[in-house]
Design brief:
Layout (H helix, E strand, L loop, with lengths): L12 E3 L3 E2 L7 E2 L1 E4 L6 H10 L3 E3 L2 E5 L8 E6 L7 H9 L4 E6 L4 H14 L10 H9 L5 E7 L9 E9 L3 E9 L8 H15 L4 E7 L16 E3 L4 E3 L2
Parallel strand pairs: 11-12
Antiparallel strand pairs: 1-4, 2-3, 4-6, 5-6, 7-12, 7-13, 8-9, 9-10, 10-11, 13-14
């Protein structure tokens, strides 16, 4: 895994047991996990992103399934990204939406929006029963350098209505899009796309090189949208290259 953090021992890796795949329910999945008890995990995390890993709560993992390589880690090279026509329309349609970047601390307003989103988008999937503790465990964790990017309606008197929250990890060289939830009543705004576009703007403003988008799965209806962000780099297990 390399020796970037200057500590005496390499970070240990573990295989999980088989579990139901979150993307293809008929398949069994396994993950490769960085030792969650290692106190250096925060320092390893930026390097783990470049190795195709992702964070969920305090767990840093990468799919490692027998006979399946459908999950492909992808990232946007910020300096080379140019929005396409559809993305420019999304920006224009939401030009008055206000953006705030806040510390990753849950509020009652954010939790209420999260629960509404899960009830609308993931009903019966196991996540729709999430409450405050699950929110904190899944989205915040105990060691991550996370931020909440809030998208709100404009208001002359304080913060306007909360439309979306993009949970974002920050490293010196990159941002990582952990999870985004939004008001299901405003789905026509394209808030998921807008959140990524605003993360790209944020990264460009702070001279960060990449925005990591997690995993892309060819042909999967909930994951294929990531291909619309061009150019898009994919990790093949050894190196990053432009996705054709």
């Amino acid at each position: 895994m390399g020796t970037e953090p200057q500590d005496s021992d390499d970070l240990r890796l573990f295989h999980t047991g088989e579990h139901a795949c979150g993307y293809w329910p008929e398949r069994a999945a396994r993950d490769l996990v960085l030792d969650p008890r290692d106190p250096r995990l925060r320092h390893w995390y930026p390097h783990a992103l470049s190795w195709g890993f992702r964070r969920s709560g305090d767990i840093v993992y990468r799919p490692h399934c027998a006979g399946c390589r459908a999950c492909v880690a992808v990232r946007i090279p910020v300096d080379r990204f140019v929005p396409d026509r559809s993305q420019r329309r999304c920006l224009a349609r939401n030009a008055n939406v206000e953006m705030r970047v806040l510390p990753a601390h849950r509020t009652a307003e954010q939790l209420a929006l999260y629960r509404r989103y899960l009830a609308s988008r993931h009903a019966g999937g196991g996540m729709d029963g999430h409450g405050a503790s699950e929110f904190d465990q899944f989205l915040i964790g105990s060691w991550s350098e996370g931020r909440f990017l809030e998208l709100r309606e404009p208001s002359p008197q304080g913060p306007g209505k909360l439309l979306a929250v993009a949970v974002t990890d920050c490293t010196e060289a990159s941002l990582s899009a952990v999870y985004t939830f939004y008001d299901p009543d405003h789905a026509a705004r394209g808030l998921g796309t807008l959140a990524i576009l605003r993360q790209i703007e944020w990264a460009r403003r702070e001279r960060r090189r990449y925005v990591y988008l997690g995993y892309w799965i060819e042909g999967h209806p909930k994951m294929d949208y990531k291909r619309r962000f061009r150019p898009l780099e994919a990790f093949d297990g050894r190196q990053w290259h432009d996705l054709p």
